[in-house]
UniProtKB/TrEMBL annotation:
UniProt KW keywords: NADP, Oxidoreductase
Major enzyme class: oxidoreductase
Family: Belongs to the dTDP-4-dehydrorhamnose reductase family.
Keyword NADP: yes
Name by which UniProt lists this protein: dTDP-4-dehydrorhamnose reductase
Provenance organism: Armatimonas rosea
Origin organism lineage: Bacteria, Bacillati, Armatimonadota, Armatimonadia, Armatimonadales
InterPro entries with a match to the protein in the record: dTDP_dehydrorham_reduct, NAD(P)-bd_dom_sf, RmlD-like-bd
Annotated ranges, domain RmlD-like substrate binding: 1-283
Single GO term (MF): dTDP-4-dehydrorhamnose reductase activity
Function (record text): Catalyzes the reduction of dTDP-6-deoxy-L-lyxo-4-hexulose to yield dTDP-L-rhamnose.
Length: 284
């Protein structure tokens, strides 16, 4: 099938391109705004009309969560309008759209894993702009959208927490991580596999797409340090202590692991555990 991939040079986008190549698809890989600025509706329409893809996989986004608080309009423009532009163009060409979204559409107050039927309540400009992008995509393409929410990505083509933890554990006497922030860390390679499964078996809907299981940031860091063969101690702190000392600009959900209910209901859940995914990543 013909796939048009935006954000193809990003952390997720480059693994989506690699997986699409491996599967032998006809690919139009657009690396960044220099190749296609998705905030430009006319350019998006022209590009999608020219290439007539079966599906578009949108890996472009404003991903600087704290920076979005200061540059809110730029984040809204890219995450909400950009997604809407792609959906509008896909409506014209009868293409499907795989729109990548985030656990930050939730407020974290549920206290356990969120599934796709839970209500959203974003707490930051980033989360709100991604949630608006979801809604605009559903409205423009009611029968041909797949919203894939994911969380805490790491992959070889981006700055990510796994590499940061390994480097820090090699150079510092000890590390400190939050023990009561609960996440579903996700490998971009495993996510790319599911995004392409969705594109190939298009069934409209919203899907949670993360590696299986959940962990605290502390467990995540300790697991990575141990798997990297290091003995650096990783000490606990609390979410409240972290927020008080680091003063991040954006509010984040404290407990936002995702349950992959829709993939399970449709018999499409192939995600390995977060631990296996990290082992694979560190080996590669
Ligand atoms: N990273 C995470 O932990 C995480 C967690 C949950 C969800 N997500 C979601 O996962 C998706 C992929 O994230 P990622 O971490 O792979 O992002 P990333 O590495 O920051 O890549 C985003 C891409 O968007 C491109 N871009 C920026 N402005 C653009 C524009 N106006 N038009 C077209 N492309 C533009 C960037 O290219 P240039 O800068 O070269 O233009 C970049 O290649 C996003 O939807 C994100 O919201 C990420």
């Amino acid at each position: 099938m013909r796939l048009l991939i935006t954000g193809a040079g990003g952390m997720l986008g480059s693994d989506v391109v690699a997986e699409a190549q491996r599967r032998g698809h006809d690919i139009v890989a657009l690396a960044g705004r220099a190749a296609l600025d998705i905030t430009d509706l006319a350019a998006v329409r022209a590009c999608v009309t020219t290439h007539q893809p079966d599906a578009v996989v949108n890996c472009s986004a404003w991903t600087n969560v704290d920076g979005a608080e200061a540059e809110a309009d730029a984040a809204w423009k890219l995450n909400a309008l950009g997604a809407a532009h792609l959906a509008t163009a896909c409506a014209q060409t009868q293409s499907w759209l795989v729109q990548v979204s985030t656990d930050f559409v939730f407020d974290g107050e549920k206290g356990s894993a969120y599934h796709e039927f839970d209500p959203v309540n974003p707490q930051s400009v980033y989360g709100a702009s991604k949630e608006a992008g979801e809604r605009l995509v559903r409205t423009a393409l009611p029968d041909r959208h797949m919203i894939a929410r994911t969380s805490f990505l790491y992959g070889k083509s981006g700055k990510n927490l796994v590499d940061t933890i390994v480097r820090a554990a090699q150079s510092r006497p000890s590390l400190t991580f939050v023990e009561d922030q609960i996440i579903s860390p996700t490998s971009t390679v495993d996510l790319a596999t599911t995004l392409l499964d969705l594109a190939e078996t298009p069934l409209a809907g919203t899907y949670h797409t993360t590696n299986a299981g959940q962990c605290s940031l502390l467990e995540f860091a300790r697991f990575i340090v141990a798997e990297a063969g290091l003995a650096t101690p990783v000490n606990p702190t609390t979410f409240a202590e972290y927020v008080a000392s680091a003063k991040p600009a954006a509010k984040r959900p404290r407990v936002s692991p995702l349950e992959r209910k829709m993939l399970a209901l449709r018999g499409m859940d192939t995600f390995p555990s977060w631990q296996d995914a990290i082992r694979t990543y560190l080996k590669s």
